[in-house]
Amino acid sequence: MNHAHSHHPTGKQGIQFRKNRGLFLLPVICLILMFSFRPEPAPEIRILNNGTKTSLRGLSVVDDQVIWVSGSNGTVGRSVDGGQSWKWTVIRGFEKNDFRDIEAFDAQTAVIMSVDAPAYILRTTNAGESWKIVYQNETKGMFLDAMEFWNDQAGIVIGDPVEGRFFVARTFDGGNNWQDIPVEKRPVADSGEACFAASGTNIRAWDTDEAIFVSGGLKSRLFTRHPPAPLPLLQGKETTGANSIAVWDNRKRKGGKQLIVVGGDFTSPDSTNGNCLFSSDRGHNWKSPLVPPHGYRSCVEFYSRQKAFACGLNGVDYTADGGNTWKWISREGFHVCRKAKKGNLIILAGGNGKIAKIAYP
Fold it and tell me: Is the same domain home to 183 and 73?
């Protein structure tokens, strides 16, 4: 076949053509890069409720519509329209109780935890119209900190140390019945070590039926099936240490679980000293953020593999790089933030009945 009349530019012509094509492509590449590197707008906080006489630390977001909250003065709130409207209940006989954590399974069913003197767990199956006491503990020094469920049947509750060991109880029937774990099997606490009942998130589901939790006080540690590991966070005072841990299960990477831990000192709400750590290898190695959250933080929650939110007394922070750099997106204080178990809604709750959602502009 004769290639003499081929239409491919050859020799000088070809070089010229390639040069021109390069010049033409350059602005196109620049435009593409400009748009792909344009920083995404930071999420905003939209207040949904305020002025209810309760400090909310319990929060469970079932899906993008169903949200339950619980708090002081025996108060429980429920929304079935994504937080636009709320039904508030003060549970009769529990007007002075502080319900620091709640786990909701649907619009009808939820379990709440009252912290101390005595410690109670209550359950409803009729949207909070009536509550049944499913657990009661009058042990001296009993103080429940948080609950966590793996699914709608299996759950765990953790409490401050009693006689040198962290209190643990389990349920296998959706919170209808709870069994205390035998004393000798409970994790041993160090002197002055405890948990913070700040947001119900110092314990999280880990593997199939394993949970992990973080402690604070004179010592701050991560408790797993292995021996407890020290956390390089602020510690040494009763008010310091880890308050919350978030887990992202990165199934694509073998053994890939990402963790973020937040805390600090709740008596110094603006201090960024030792208030955050992150790990990309199941907590074997910890890194401190390049730009930490902007104060003490009582709760942290993953939104996606790289994005997470942390809240505390002086506002809300957002990370888009797995916990390395945090941006202060609101000066509104909150105790707790949780993402929908099924869905994308992120809700925050705090003092004075304040509830908000994360919104992207």
Answer: yes
